[in-house]
Specification:
The chain has about 180 residues and is mainly α. About 70% of the residues lie in helices and about 0% in strands. The chain has eight helices and no strands. The longest helix has 26 residues. About 30% of the residues are buried. The chain starts with a helix and ends with a helix. The radius of gyration is 18 Å and the shape is elongated.
Length: about 180
């Protein structure tokens, strides 16, 4: 195995395993699906339970596809989309650093997934064995395009952020901040 193929395999295993662990945690950890649904609803997403299950299936599914090296650009697109949504809704308001709940972590996972789509899964993958590898500009464009499309579709269909207080609302409630 060439060193580049080993490096790509390691990236696929780590990113894929991380996504699977994250999806399982949304499903079975702490607050389980109900807690994840409440959290998503608190971020302004409608249909919290549906969102929770979509997150679980997407994270576990994309993670498994990455580990297998199967449909790599599509798996990377799912990672890009999940990280864009998490970054935008949950982490952006907190700034960059992860220790402040910022977007540092999701940025790294999303960019690594995009880079993996550009580089391809390597020879130790089902894509390579089946001779269906899509990499380079095409792989990157697929991952980025599908990831952005998924993100925009979900936000347009389901995101309903709390409106900011207008001056008249603030005056009516006595809020002078």
């Amino acid at each position: 195995m060439h060193s580049t193929d080993l490096a790509l395999l390691l990236v696929r295993l780590v990113v894929g395993g991380t996504l699977i662990a994250h999806g399982v945690n949304h499903w079975l950890g702490g607050g389980k699906i109900a807690g994840t649904a409440r959290w998503f609803s608190g971020l302004g997403l409608r249909y919290g339970t549906v969102q929770a299950w979509l997150s679980v299936v997407t994270e576990i599914g994309a993670g498994a596809l990455l580990i297998l090296g199967l449909l790599t650009p599509a798996a990377c697109a799912a990672v890009v989309s999940v990280m864009l949504i998490a970054g935008w809704l949950a982490h952006r308001p907190n700034g960059f650093f992860v220790f402040r709940e910022g977007y540092e972590y999701v940025l790294v996972l999303g960019v690594v997934a995009l880079a993996l789509a550009v580089l391809g899964p390597g020879s130790a993958s089902i894509d390579a064995a089946a001779e269906i590898t899509i990499a380079g500009w095409t792989g990157g464009a697929l991952a980025l395009g599908l990831g952005l499309a998924g993100t925009v579709a979900l936000l347009v269909a389901c995101w309903r952020p709390e409106p900011a207080d207008t001056p008249s609302e603030a005056a009516a409630t006595g809020d002078r901040s």
